[in-house]
Amino acid sequence: MKSRIVPAILCAVALAGTSGLANAKGCLKGAAAGAVAGHYAGHHAVVGAVGGCVVGRHLANKKAAEQKEQATAVSAAAPAPAK
Q: Which residues form the signal peptide (predicted)?
């Protein structure tokens, strides 16, 4: 069991080192949910947290892209202001 913890911690540290403060959106929620799920699915909380962080970050990026797309669609549909 301990031989699996060290690589998981190294992966988590590597992932944490590549993201800045702004990139944490979605990671914390996903890591918490993944840790709980991993714990109940065979005491793999660390692996679940790392996976949850990755998935949470992906979903946050996807949501941000959708919001940006909606904002550009709304601004394109709005009439130009009169001078």
A: 1-24
Contact 37, 56 (CB under 8 A): no
- DSSP letter string, 3-72: HHHHHHHHHHHHHHHH--SGGGTTHHHHHHHHHHHHHHTTS-HHHHHHHHHHHHHHHHHHHHHHHHHHHH
Element (H, E) at 78: none
What is the SS3 string spanning 3-15? HHHHHHHHHHHHH
pTM reported for the whole predicted model = 0.59
**Tokens 């988590």 correspond to what residue?**
12
